Amino acid sequence: MAAGDTALSICSDALQMLGAKAISSFSEGTDEANVSDALYQDVKKQTLLIYPWSFVYKKSQISKLLTNPTTEYKYQFQLPGDRIGPPRMVMVSATPGSPTIRDYRIFGDKLMTNEETIFIDYPYDVQEFEMPVYFVQLMKYMMAWHLAMPITDQTEKAQYWQGVAVGSPDQNGRGGYTRIAMNMDGQGQPNFVIEDFPLIAVRF
User: Fold this and answer.
1) What confidence tens digit (pLDDT) does each residue in 150-201 have?
2) DSSP letter string over 137-170?
3) DSSP type of residue 68
4) Boundary (domain end) residue, out of 69, 96, 123
5) Domain containing residue 180
6) Per-residue pLDDT at 99
7) Which of 18, 56, 82 is nearest to 181 (CA)?
């Protein structure tokens, strides 16, 4: 984890990559501080959602509300306040291997279903000190890309840092350092092996 990193340090490093002045506070009144403050949270959340990063998901049981929905579903549940995107999985149990359910709908900050108990894996707004080093570096490149035009007014710089961050347009946002960060993130994930497959076993 990048314990010493903050939103301010990420933006300061990105500004220095552009040849601009570092900032000491988002409220210092400079153009660099104002633009960084305006853009950072949106860029951060978009970057957290471009890929199912291993560190961005929480598992939580969500609370069933007392009032029933006026829809085809029996129950409604309150989604967590720190959620930044749709759940990756919706389950009726936290037990490993519990099957996911698909008969649900999300309306605003409510999840509606006919199940009485709901657990979800959902992406949340990860704080900077919780981010792995490779993701912090990606955030610096992403901020350099998004700050380039408003700070330097140079299209070439914006295009350059876009390439560093996500690669060329034909790579659909999965090139550049983003690809490297994805590979690093995947190294900590288990490889799933099919140990038993009935359609093959029956042939023997």
Assistant:
1) 999 999 999 999 999 999 999 999 999 999 999 999 886 655 444 444 444 4
2) HHHHHHHHHHHHHHHH--HHHHHHHHHHHH--GG
3) P
4) 123
5) 7-52+127-186
6) 85
7) 56
